[in-house]
Amino acid sequence: MERLQKFIALSGYCSRRKAEELIVQGKVMVDGKVVTVLGTKVDDSNKITIEGKTLSKENKEYILLYKPRGVVTTTSDEKDRKTVMDLIETDKRLYPIGRLDYDTTGLLLLTNDGELTNLLIHPKNEIDKVYIAKINGIMNASEIKKLEFGVLIDGHKTAKSKVKVKKIDKVNNCSIVQITIHEGKNHQVKKMFETIGYEVLKLKREKIAFLDLTGLKPGEYRKLNIKEVKKLYALK
Fold first, then answer.
1. Cα–Cα distances in angstroms (integers) from residue 123 to residues 10, 132, 205, in the given order
2. Domains of the chain by start residue, with CATH
3. Handedness of CA 109, 115, 118, 120 (dihedral sign)
4. Per-residue pLDDT tens for 42-95?
5. DSSP labels, the chain
6. Model confidence at 7, in pLDDT bands (50, 70, 90)?
7. Is this model's pTM higher than 0.90 or not?
């Protein structure tokens, strides 16, 4: 038996927190009866209906994709552009954990495990995400410190980050910079560099926590093993 909100999260329908909201709002039914009590225990023998849709607890699948440039991070696209789902063969309803911009490459996780998704994207868990950015110009020490201690984007000061200049190209006036953040705001890395006067020419996410792109080429993917999944849950 599992708590109703966890069962919904495990189905991939939404996060556990969102499931709790739906239960309280009376939008969840168990065996034909509306349930508004959090913590109600259910199992696979119960018929769970949420917002008119019957759920079943699916086998969980966890994909690590090397997202190439020119692919959108969504399950469908109104402009008929290629999506990350077009790169993966699966019979499961998978969803990306977070987003990478159309022109950003690198590590992207996809799953039908709503609980793990919520764990990895919630800022309080401070899951490191490592990016490599090619920027126009050469940063000085004070600018590096500004990024590390947080800058103001969209009216919010970013959390502390780690910044390391990997390479300087004086001839072409550009730099390769590694930046580690644990937030996931829209276009965050690009906006952080913009606040100190630099444009991000290329951006790649190399790591999420302990996971990296070893052995993969752009467009390729692999499934996470059970040991990796348990290790991700242990990050909470």
1. 21, 21, 17
2. 2-55 (3.10.290.10), 62-123+211-233 (3.30.70.580), 128-208 (3.30.70.1560)
3. negative
4. 877 889 999 988 886 667 899 999 999 999 998 888 888 999 999 999 988 888
5. -EEHHHHHHHTTSS-HHHHHHHHHTT-EEETTEE---TT-EE-TTS-EEETTEEE--PPP-EEEEEEPTT-BSSS--TT---BGGGG---SS--EESS---TT-EEEEEEES-HHHHHHHH-GGG---EEEEEEEES---HHHHHHHHH--EETTEEPPP-EEEEEEEETTTTEEEEEEEES---TTHHHHHHHHTT--EEEEEEEEETTEE-TT--TT-EEEPPHHHHHHHHTT-
6. confident
7. no
| Residues belonging to the active site | 101
Q: Which residue reads 């302990």 in tokens?
A: 210
Query: What is the tens place of the pLDDT at every residue in 100-116?
Result: 999 999 999 999 888 88
What angle, 0 to 180 degrees and rounded to 10, lies between the N-to-C axes of helices 114-121 and 16-24?
110
Model confidence pLDDT, tens digit, residues 194-203: 999 999 999 9
